[in-house]
Design a protein that fits this description.
about 130 residues, Pnp Oxidase, Chain A, 7 strands
Length: about 130
């Protein structure tokens, strides 16, 4: 498991930073999406809905890369490479609600669509480098 540099842990734990996550499509081309995330037990957790591109590209064992910019200083960022270690529906609704609290200050995720099925994805960092 990759170690997050101590002087960049604030981007994962205490700032309202967005991550841009890169995944690979079936044809080998990259796909990048900004996402909400949290950091728990050494893993970065994101959330998506079934049927979205991210949900189709994130599979256990998939490799990903993330760039997390400091919202207070765009010249400071953390790059994390990792692999998907778990994908589950279990707890995904509560997880998106906790992310809505972090990013919007709301107790419930307000953008849920009828019939939407949420998916929680855990990413284990394999390397991390900070700049700035």
């Amino acid at each position: 498991m990759g170690t997050i540099p101590d002087n960049f842990l604030d981007l994962l734990t205490s700032k309202k930073a967005f991550a841009n996550i890169a995944t690979v499509l079936k044809d080998g081309s990259p796909q990048v999406t900004p996402v909400w995330f949290d950091y728990t037990d050494g893993k970065i957790r994101i959330n998506t809905a079934q049927g979205r591109v991210k949900a189709r590209t994130l599979r256990p064992g998939s490799r990903v890369a993330m760039a997390i910019l400091d919202p207070d200083n765009p010249y400071r960022y953390l790059q994390v490479r990792g692999r998907v270690v778990n994908i589950t529906r279990e707890g995904a609704d509560a997880h998106i609600d906790s992310l809505a609290k972090k990013y919007l200050g709301r107790d419930k995720y307000p953008f849920r669509q009828p019939g939407e099925i949420r998916i929680k994805c855990e990413i284990e960092p394999t390397s991390a480098q900070g700049m700035g």
